[in-house]
């Protein structure tokens, strides 16, 4: 007896509009939605390569205190939007720094309060 199985090839799910869900909006303190940039394959590859070359946190706080922490995040030193607005290369290693998650969250919080719309 021969048993045949019919398996469907996996496909990406088709996004369905859910009328009860509101469309995702940019978080209140963010002026620009950069998710397309950060989710792009090119950025993920650059970020991974940068962290491989710089595995420790490079933030000023850690440097000044002599702390050694593993880096989890690749951060734009001057901010992605600044680089894009000034036609600078956001993939350049000169514009990046490796950071520990907690250090990155502190920096992002400070930056968000600096750029707040009044």
Mean pLDDT across all amino acids: 83
Q: How many extended strands? A: 2
Strand order of the largest sheet: 1-2
Alpha plus pi helix count = 5
Order of helices and strands: HHHEHEH
Sheet with most strands: 2 strands, antiparallel
- Helix percent reads 25-40%
Structural class: mainly alpha
Low-confidence stretches: none
**Rg calculated over all Cα atoms:** 20 Å
- CA-to-CA gap between the ends? 75 Å
Which shape, going by the Cα principal axes?
globular
Q: Approximately how much beta-strand content do the residues carry?
A: 5-15%
How would you describe this structure to a colleague?
With 118 residues, the protein is mainly alpha-helical. It has a domain at 35-103. The protein has helices at 35-39, 41-53, 60-65, 80-85, 101-114; strands at residues 73-76, 96-99. It has a two-stranded antiparallel ribbon. The protein starts with 34 loop residues before the first helix and ends with a helix. The mean pLDDT is 83.
Give the topology.
Blueprint: H1 35-39, H2 41-53, H3 60-65, E1 73-76, H4 80-85, E2 96-99, H5 101-114
Antiparallel strand pairs: 1-2
A few lines on this structure:
The protein has 118 residues and is mainly α. It has a domain at 35-103. The chain has helices spanning 35-39, 41-53, 60-65, 80-85, 101-114, and strands at residues 73-76, 96-99.
Annotation keywords:
single chain, 118 residues, mainly alpha, two-stranded antiparallel sheet, 5 helices, 2 strands, 7% strand
């Amino acid at each position: 007896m021969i048993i045949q199985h019919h398996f469907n090839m996996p496909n990406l799910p088709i996004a369905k509009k859910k009328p009860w869900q509101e469309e995702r909006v940019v978080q209140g303190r963010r002026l620009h939605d950069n998710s397309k940039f950060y989710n792009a394959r090119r950025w993920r590859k650059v970020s991974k390569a940068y962290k491989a070359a710089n595995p420790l946190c490079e933030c000023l706080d850690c440097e000044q205190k002599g702390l050694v922490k593993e880096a989890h995040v690749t951060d734009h030193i001057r901010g992605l939007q600044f680089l894009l607005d000034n036609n600078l290369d956001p993939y350049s290693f000169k514009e990046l720094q490796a950071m520990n998650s907690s250090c990155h969250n502190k920096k992002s919080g400070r930056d968000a309060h600096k750029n707040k719309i009044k």
